[in-house]
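User: tokens in, sequence out, please.
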């Protein structure tokens, strides 16, 4: 069974990297309930405040990445053919929870493209005390801007 998980738990950046679904682990301000077996979820403050007090956050979420036609040896330890573009990234789907977000009255998540432009409307989070549940994976992207109103 593969079940490794790396966590980052700093005031302005937090991450869950690895077998997030199977491990069910959380860090100070981030938890995830995703369908992907392996992924990276990174949350960073976009102002100079810790995540718990920030007004703007960047969420990056992605699964395994490969070029189209990329091939591995039978042991899965070495690339035997690099393939070609486009590069494919498995989209992360599920719910992330912002934990212990101080004094928030509204939290929204906005899927964005690589240039930071909106992809459809922002979605309001669902509050539960100081925690906020936010859906990810409805739009094809790896980037999200989270806005917190106090």
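Assistant: Sequence out:
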């Amino acid at each position: 069974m593969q079940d490794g998980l790396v966590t980052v738990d700093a005031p302005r950046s937090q991450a869950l990297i690895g077998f997030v679904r199977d491990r069910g682990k959380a860090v100070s301000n981030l938890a995830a309930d995703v369908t992907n077996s392996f992924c990276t979820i990174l949350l960073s403050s976009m102002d100079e405040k810790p995540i718990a007090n920030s007004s703007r956050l960047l969420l990056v979420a992605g699964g395994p990445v490969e070029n189209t036609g990329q091939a591995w040896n039978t042991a899965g330890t070495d690339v035997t053919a690099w393939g070609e573009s486009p590069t494919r990234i498995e989209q992360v789907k599920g719910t992330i929870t912002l934990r212990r977000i101080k004094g928030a009255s509204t939290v929204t998540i906005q899927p964005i493209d690589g240039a930071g432009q909106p992809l459809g409307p922002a979605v309001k989070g669902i509050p539960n005390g100081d925690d906020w549940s936010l859906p990810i994976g409805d739009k094809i992207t790896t980037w999200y801007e989270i806005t917190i109103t106090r």
